[in-house]
Design goal:
Layout (H helix, E strand, L loop, with lengths): L13 E6 L2 E9 L5 E10 L5 H10 L7 E5 L5 E6 L8 H8 L11 E7 L10 E8 H13 L7 E3 H15 L6 E7 L4 E8 L2 E9 L10 E2 L5 E2 L3 H20 L5 E7 L4 H12 L3 E3 L14 H14 L8
Helix pairs in contact: 4-7
Protein backbone atom coordinates (compact mmCIF):
# COMPACT_ATOMS: atom_id res chain seq x y z
CA UNK A 1 0.00 0.00 0.00
CA UNK A 2 1.32 3.44 -0.84
CA UNK A 3 0.81 5.18 2.49
CA UNK A 4 1.98 8.80 2.68
CA UNK A 5 5.12 7.81 4.59
CA UNK A 6 6.27 5.08 2.23
CA UNK A 7 9.95 5.96 1.85
CA UNK A 8 11.55 3.99 -0.97
CA UNK A 9 11.63 0.56 -2.52
CA UNK A 10 13.94 -1.87 -0.79
CA UNK A 11 14.45 -5.60 -1.13
CA UNK A 12 12.50 -7.72 1.35
CA UNK A 13 14.41 -9.07 4.32
CA UNK A 14 11.99 -8.92 7.26
CA UNK A 15 8.18 -9.06 7.27
CA UNK A 16 6.32 -8.36 10.49
CA UNK A 17 2.96 -7.63 12.03
CA UNK A 18 2.54 -5.69 15.26
CA UNK A 19 -0.91 -6.00 16.83
CA UNK A 20 -2.23 -6.62 20.33
CA UNK A 21 1.24 -6.12 21.82
CA UNK A 22 2.51 -9.14 19.86
CA UNK A 23 5.16 -9.16 17.18
CA UNK A 24 4.94 -11.84 14.49
CA UNK A 25 7.92 -11.98 12.16
CA UNK A 26 9.52 -13.85 9.27
CA UNK A 27 13.09 -13.15 8.22
CA UNK A 28 13.92 -14.49 4.76
CA UNK A 29 16.63 -14.36 2.12
CA UNK A 30 15.87 -14.21 -1.60
CA UNK A 31 18.09 -16.78 -3.27
CA UNK A 32 19.51 -16.52 -6.77
CA UNK A 33 16.92 -19.03 -7.98
CA UNK A 34 14.11 -16.68 -6.90
CA UNK A 35 13.10 -18.75 -3.86
CA UNK A 36 12.59 -17.10 -0.48
CA UNK A 37 14.49 -19.11 2.12
CA UNK A 38 13.10 -18.59 5.62
CA UNK A 39 15.89 -17.99 8.10
CA UNK A 40 13.88 -17.11 11.18
CA UNK A 41 10.24 -16.96 12.25
CA UNK A 42 8.42 -16.51 15.50
CA UNK A 43 5.96 -14.75 17.77
CA UNK A 44 7.05 -12.51 20.64
CA UNK A 45 4.62 -11.06 23.19
CA UNK A 46 5.55 -7.88 25.02
CA UNK A 47 3.82 -9.00 28.21
CA UNK A 48 4.93 -6.97 31.23
CA UNK A 49 8.11 -5.68 29.53
CA UNK A 50 8.54 -1.96 29.08
CA UNK A 51 9.01 -0.72 25.51
CA UNK A 52 12.77 -0.53 26.06
CA UNK A 53 12.95 -4.00 27.61
CA UNK A 54 10.94 -5.49 24.76
CA UNK A 55 13.11 -3.77 22.15
CA UNK A 56 16.21 -5.15 23.88
CA UNK A 57 14.73 -8.65 23.83
CA UNK A 58 13.96 -8.39 20.12
CA UNK A 59 17.42 -6.98 19.48
CA UNK A 60 18.83 -10.10 21.11
CA UNK A 61 16.95 -12.14 18.51
CA UNK A 62 18.75 -10.26 15.75
CA UNK A 63 15.71 -8.25 14.62
CA UNK A 64 17.19 -4.76 14.87
CA UNK A 65 18.10 -2.52 11.95
CA UNK A 66 16.15 -4.16 9.12
CA UNK A 67 14.10 -2.91 6.20
CA UNK A 68 10.84 -4.21 7.65
CA UNK A 69 7.75 -4.68 5.54
CA UNK A 70 4.71 -4.46 7.81
CA UNK A 71 1.47 -6.38 7.31
CA UNK A 72 -1.53 -5.04 9.18
CA UNK A 73 -3.80 -7.64 10.77
CA UNK A 74 -7.51 -7.48 9.81
CA UNK A 75 -8.52 -6.04 13.19
CA UNK A 76 -6.33 -3.01 12.42
CA UNK A 77 -8.18 -1.82 9.29
CA UNK A 78 -11.35 -2.06 7.20
CA UNK A 79 -11.78 -3.11 3.59
CA UNK A 80 -14.76 -1.45 1.92
CA UNK A 81 -16.08 -1.94 -1.61
CA UNK A 82 -17.66 0.96 -3.49
CA UNK A 83 -18.53 2.10 -6.97
CA UNK A 84 -15.42 3.69 -8.46
CA UNK A 85 -15.82 7.48 -8.58
CA UNK A 86 -15.83 8.92 -12.08
CA UNK A 87 -12.70 11.02 -11.59
CA UNK A 88 -9.15 11.15 -12.87
CA UNK A 89 -6.78 8.55 -11.32
CA UNK A 90 -4.90 11.18 -9.35
CA UNK A 91 -8.18 12.25 -7.72
CA UNK A 92 -9.37 8.74 -6.86
CA UNK A 93 -8.27 8.68 -3.22
CA UNK A 94 -9.79 12.06 -2.45
CA UNK A 95 -13.06 11.07 -4.11
CA UNK A 96 -13.13 7.73 -2.30
CA UNK A 97 -12.55 9.49 1.02
CA UNK A 98 -15.66 11.58 0.42
CA UNK A 99 -17.70 8.57 -0.71
CA UNK A 100 -16.96 6.43 2.38
CA UNK A 101 -17.52 9.19 4.95
CA UNK A 102 -20.70 7.48 6.24
CA UNK A 103 -19.18 3.98 6.19
CA UNK A 104 -16.53 4.41 8.88
CA UNK A 105 -16.94 5.21 12.56
CA UNK A 106 -13.94 7.55 12.74
CA UNK A 107 -13.51 11.20 11.87
CA UNK A 108 -12.19 11.51 8.33
CA UNK A 109 -9.21 13.51 9.57
CA UNK A 110 -8.20 10.52 11.69
CA UNK A 111 -7.85 7.95 8.90
CA UNK A 112 -5.45 6.99 6.14
CA UNK A 113 -6.82 5.18 3.10
CA UNK A 114 -5.64 3.56 -0.08
CA UNK A 115 -7.61 2.30 -3.07
CA UNK A 116 -7.39 -0.68 -5.40
CA UNK A 117 -9.61 -1.51 -8.35
CA UNK A 118 -11.52 -4.77 -7.98
CA UNK A 119 -9.87 -7.29 -10.26
CA UNK A 120 -7.14 -4.80 -11.05
CA UNK A 121 -9.51 -2.92 -13.36
CA UNK A 122 -9.97 -5.89 -15.69
CA UNK A 123 -12.94 -5.92 -18.05
CA UNK A 124 -16.14 -6.19 -16.06
CA UNK A 125 -14.50 -5.13 -12.80
CA UNK A 126 -13.46 -1.56 -13.47
CA UNK A 127 -16.57 -0.07 -11.89
CA UNK A 128 -15.76 -1.32 -8.38
CA UNK A 129 -13.12 -0.17 -5.94
CA UNK A 130 -11.65 -1.63 -2.77
CA UNK A 131 -10.94 1.05 -0.18
CA UNK A 132 -8.61 0.14 2.67
CA UNK A 133 -9.06 2.31 5.76
CA UNK A 134 -6.81 2.39 8.82
CA UNK A 135 -6.74 4.84 11.69
CA UNK A 136 -3.79 7.21 11.86
CA UNK A 137 -3.30 6.08 15.47
CA UNK A 138 -2.80 2.43 14.46
CA UNK A 139 -0.32 3.33 11.74
CA UNK A 140 1.56 5.74 13.98
CA UNK A 141 1.89 3.03 16.65
CA UNK A 142 3.30 0.59 14.10
CA UNK A 143 5.84 3.12 12.90
CA UNK A 144 6.82 4.15 16.43
CA UNK A 145 7.42 0.50 17.25
CA UNK A 146 9.62 0.18 14.18
CA UNK A 147 11.65 3.19 15.21
CA UNK A 148 12.58 1.52 18.51
CA UNK A 149 14.24 -1.23 16.46
CA UNK A 150 15.72 1.14 13.88
CA UNK A 151 13.58 -0.25 11.09
CA UNK A 152 13.04 1.44 7.79
CA UNK A 153 9.42 0.68 6.81
CA UNK A 154 9.13 0.98 3.01
CA UNK A 155 5.79 -0.85 2.73
CA UNK A 156 2.64 -1.29 4.81
CA UNK A 157 0.52 -4.14 3.43
CA UNK A 158 -2.70 -5.91 4.43
CA UNK A 159 -3.64 -9.55 4.90
CA UNK A 160 -6.10 -9.69 1.98
CA UNK A 161 -3.41 -8.85 -0.56
CA UNK A 162 -0.87 -11.11 1.15
CA UNK A 163 -3.37 -13.98 0.89
CA UNK A 164 -4.00 -13.11 -2.77
CA UNK A 165 -0.27 -13.47 -3.42
CA UNK A 166 -0.15 -16.91 -1.82
CA UNK A 167 -3.10 -18.30 -3.74
CA UNK A 168 -1.67 -16.85 -6.94
CA UNK A 169 1.57 -18.71 -6.24
CA UNK A 170 -0.35 -21.98 -5.95
CA UNK A 171 -2.40 -21.27 -9.07
CA UNK A 172 0.75 -20.46 -11.03
CA UNK A 173 2.27 -23.77 -9.98
CA UNK A 174 -0.77 -25.52 -11.42
CA UNK A 175 -0.54 -23.51 -14.66
CA UNK A 176 -4.01 -22.06 -14.00
CA UNK A 177 -3.23 -18.55 -12.80
CA UNK A 178 -5.66 -16.99 -15.27
CA UNK A 179 -8.58 -18.89 -13.72
CA UNK A 180 -10.54 -17.81 -10.66
CA UNK A 181 -9.42 -19.46 -7.43
CA UNK A 182 -10.48 -19.09 -3.79
CA UNK A 183 -8.49 -19.23 -0.56
CA UNK A 184 -9.95 -19.64 2.92
CA UNK A 185 -7.62 -18.99 5.84
CA UNK A 186 -8.41 -18.96 9.54
CA UNK A 187 -7.38 -15.57 10.91
CA UNK A 188 -7.86 -16.70 14.50
CA UNK A 189 -10.44 -18.65 16.50
CA UNK A 190 -13.04 -15.96 15.75
CA UNK A 191 -12.75 -15.21 12.02
CA UNK A 192 -11.81 -16.66 8.66
CA UNK A 193 -10.81 -14.74 5.54
CA UNK A 194 -12.13 -15.76 2.11
CA UNK A 195 -10.53 -14.25 -0.98
CA UNK A 196 -11.11 -14.96 -4.67
CA UNK A 197 -8.49 -14.01 -7.24
CA UNK A 198 -7.78 -14.43 -10.94
CA UNK A 199 -4.76 -13.43 -12.99
CA UNK A 200 -3.02 -12.41 -9.81
CA UNK A 201 -5.67 -9.80 -8.96
CA UNK A 202 -8.09 -9.65 -6.04
CA UNK A 203 -11.76 -9.76 -7.04
CA UNK A 204 -13.56 -10.70 -3.83
CA UNK A 205 -12.87 -10.51 -0.11
CA UNK A 206 -15.01 -11.44 2.86
CA UNK A 207 -14.37 -12.01 6.55
CA UNK A 208 -16.52 -14.76 8.02
CA UNK A 209 -17.23 -14.85 11.74
CA UNK A 210 -16.70 -18.16 13.51
CA UNK A 211 -18.65 -19.46 16.46
CA UNK A 212 -16.73 -19.94 19.72
CA UNK A 213 -14.63 -23.12 19.68
CA UNK A 214 -15.43 -23.72 16.00
CA UNK A 215 -11.97 -25.13 15.37
CA UNK A 216 -12.34 -27.46 18.33
CA UNK A 217 -15.52 -29.07 17.00
CA UNK A 218 -15.30 -32.69 15.83
CA UNK A 219 -15.85 -33.25 12.11
CA UNK A 220 -16.31 -37.01 12.18
CA UNK A 221 -16.79 -39.52 9.38
CA UNK A 222 -19.11 -42.49 9.60
CA UNK A 223 -18.33 -45.97 8.29
CA UNK A 224 -19.38 -44.96 4.79
CA UNK A 225 -17.00 -41.98 4.79
CA UNK A 226 -19.73 -39.36 5.16
CA UNK A 227 -19.20 -36.55 7.63
CA UNK A 228 -21.47 -36.39 10.64
CA UNK A 229 -21.66 -32.74 11.72
CA UNK A 230 -24.68 -31.92 13.83
CA UNK A 231 -23.29 -28.74 15.25
CA UNK A 232 -25.29 -25.65 14.24
CA UNK A 233 -22.16 -23.49 14.19
CA UNK A 234 -20.52 -25.73 11.61
CA UNK A 235 -23.65 -25.69 9.48
CA UNK A 236 -23.82 -21.90 9.64
CA UNK A 237 -20.21 -21.74 8.55
CA UNK A 238 -21.00 -23.95 5.56
CA UNK A 239 -23.95 -21.77 4.64
CA UNK A 240 -21.79 -18.64 4.67
CA UNK A 241 -19.13 -20.27 2.48
CA UNK A 242 -21.75 -21.50 0.02
CA UNK A 243 -23.43 -18.09 -0.02
CA UNK A 244 -20.15 -16.42 -0.96
CA UNK A 245 -19.47 -18.92 -3.73
CA UNK A 246 -23.02 -18.45 -5.06
CA UNK A 247 -22.49 -14.68 -5.14
CA UNK A 248 -19.31 -15.25 -7.09
CA UNK A 249 -21.04 -17.52 -9.62
CA UNK A 250 -23.81 -14.97 -10.20
CA UNK A 251 -21.54 -11.95 -10.39
CA UNK A 252 -18.64 -13.40 -12.36
CA UNK A 253 -20.25 -16.00 -14.59
CA UNK A 254 -17.44 -15.52 -17.12
CA UNK A 255 -14.87 -16.55 -14.46
CA UNK A 256 -16.07 -19.88 -13.05
CA UNK A 257 -14.32 -20.90 -9.86
CA UNK A 258 -11.49 -23.30 -10.63
CA UNK A 259 -10.49 -24.38 -7.13
CA UNK A 260 -10.45 -23.67 -3.41
CA UNK A 261 -7.51 -23.85 -0.98
CA UNK A 262 -7.86 -23.80 2.79
CA UNK A 263 -5.55 -23.21 5.73
CA UNK A 264 -6.57 -24.01 9.30
CA UNK A 265 -3.33 -24.89 11.06
CA UNK A 266 -3.23 -28.44 12.34
CA UNK A 267 -6.78 -29.07 11.12
CA UNK A 268 -6.16 -27.98 7.52
CA UNK A 269 -6.46 -31.42 5.94
CA UNK A 270 -9.53 -32.25 8.01
CA UNK A 271 -11.23 -28.99 7.01
CA UNK A 272 -10.36 -29.55 3.35
CA UNK A 273 -11.84 -33.05 3.42
CA UNK A 274 -14.99 -31.89 5.21
CA UNK A 275 -15.60 -28.96 2.85
CA UNK A 276 -14.95 -31.16 -0.19
CA UNK A 277 -17.72 -33.52 0.97
CA UNK A 278 -20.17 -30.75 1.84
CA UNK A 279 -19.55 -28.45 -1.13
CA UNK A 280 -19.35 -31.21 -3.71
CA UNK A 281 -16.00 -30.30 -5.27
CA UNK A 282 -12.32 -30.62 -4.42
CA UNK A 283 -11.02 -28.36 -1.67
CA UNK A 284 -7.26 -28.59 -1.16
CA UNK A 285 -4.89 -27.67 1.67
CA UNK A 286 -2.61 -24.68 1.07
CA UNK A 287 0.70 -26.51 0.92
CA UNK A 288 3.35 -23.80 0.83
CA UNK A 289 6.39 -25.26 2.58
CA UNK A 290 8.07 -26.27 -0.68
CA UNK A 291 8.01 -22.65 -1.85
CA UNK A 292 9.57 -21.35 1.38
CA UNK A 293 12.33 -23.72 2.56
CA UNK A 294 12.94 -23.23 6.26
CA UNK A 295 9.31 -22.48 7.07
CA UNK A 296 8.67 -26.05 8.19
CA UNK A 297 10.21 -25.28 11.59
CA UNK A 298 8.54 -23.62 14.56
CA UNK A 299 5.44 -24.38 16.60
CA UNK A 300 2.03 -24.90 14.98
CA UNK A 301 0.75 -21.65 16.49
CA UNK A 302 3.74 -19.65 15.23
CA UNK A 303 3.43 -21.12 11.75
CA UNK A 304 -0.28 -20.23 11.59
CA UNK A 305 0.41 -16.62 12.55
CA UNK A 306 3.48 -16.32 10.33
CA UNK A 307 1.99 -17.93 7.23
CA UNK A 308 0.23 -14.78 5.87
CA UNK A 309 3.50 -12.86 6.13
CA UNK A 310 4.94 -15.09 3.41
CA UNK A 311 2.52 -13.46 0.99
CA UNK A 312 4.16 -10.09 1.62
CA UNK A 313 7.50 -11.59 0.55
CA UNK A 314 5.87 -12.21 -2.83
CA UNK A 315 4.66 -8.64 -3.14
CA UNK A 316 5.20 -7.09 -6.58
CA UNK A 317 6.71 -3.68 -5.98
CA UNK A 318 4.87 -1.95 -8.82
CA UNK A 319 1.42 -2.73 -7.38
CA UNK A 320 -0.67 0.11 -6.02
CA UNK A 321 -1.65 -2.11 -3.12
Amino acid sequence: MRWPWKRRKLSDSLVVSWAGQSLVYVRARLREDGVHEVLQLGVEHQGSDSADEFAKRLSGLGLKGFDAHVMLRPEQYQVLQIEAPAVAPEEMRAAARWQIRDMVDMHMDDITLDVMRVGGGKVGAGGQLFVVVASNAVLAEVLRFGQTLQWDVPVVDIQETAQRNLQTLLARQDGRVERANAALMMLNEHQALLTISANGELFYSRRIDLAPDFLDKPWQQDAAGAFVVDDDAAQRFLVEIQRSLDVWDRTWSDLPLDGVWVEAGERTQELATWLSKELGFAVRPMKLDSFFPGFEGGSAQARTLCLPLLGVLLRTEDRDI
